[in-house]
Inverse folding.
């Protein structure tokens, strides 16, 4: 009579323990790689949006895209992301993959976005449609135009100069 030979309980437990140890070692590596990929995607999105701003400026006599602009509808402004829409291919460009709460500015025709725009450059004097000419930006290579916006902020952007972070320090 032949006895069916299989794995013993100890052998199965050893294999399961090895798999759990490997998973415990690899999970933090996977998490780090995922976060790094999300950051890279956000940076690529910001670079592409900066290109869209440059195209907008070329079409509008060198003027930066305003944070908000009159839409022609009664009491409604267009947000900067809606004004830039003809200059990019997908609305996914406005979303950072790591942003759990992308926002939409209230009171305007605005797309859901993860990024904000510097109001010191694009909402001059607090006036709708008032933005600087590209030539008026002092030290443009060191000036922040677009940035990650906290999801809880329901706005088109922030005034960065007032918060002390309007410039990038040269290192």
């Amino acid at each position: 009579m032949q006895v069916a030979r299989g794995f013993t309980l100890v052998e199965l437990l050893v294999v399961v323990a090895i798999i759990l140890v490997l998973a415990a070692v690899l999970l933090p590596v996977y998490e780090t790689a995922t976060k790094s990929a999300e950051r890279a995607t956000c940076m690529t999105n910001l670079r592409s949006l900066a290109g869209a701003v440059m195209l907008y400026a070329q079409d509008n006599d060198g003027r930066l895209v305003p944070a908000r602009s009159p839409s022609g509808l009664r009491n409604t402004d267009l947000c900067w992301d809606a004004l830039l829409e003809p200059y990019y291919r997908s609305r996914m460009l406005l979303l950072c993959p790591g942003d759990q709460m992308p926002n939409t500015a209230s009171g305007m025709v605005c797309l859901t976005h993860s990024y904000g725009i510097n109001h010191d450059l694009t909402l001059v004097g607090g006036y709708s449609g008032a933005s600087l000419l590209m030539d008026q930006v002092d030290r443009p290579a060191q000036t922040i135009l677009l940035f990650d916006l906290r999801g809880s902020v329901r706005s088109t952007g922030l005034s960065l100069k007032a918060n002390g972070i309007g410039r990038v320090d040269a290192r």
Notes: The longest strand covers residues 115-118. The radius of gyration is 25 Å. Residues 162-171 have pLDDT under 50 and may be disordered. The chain is about 35% helix and 10% strand.
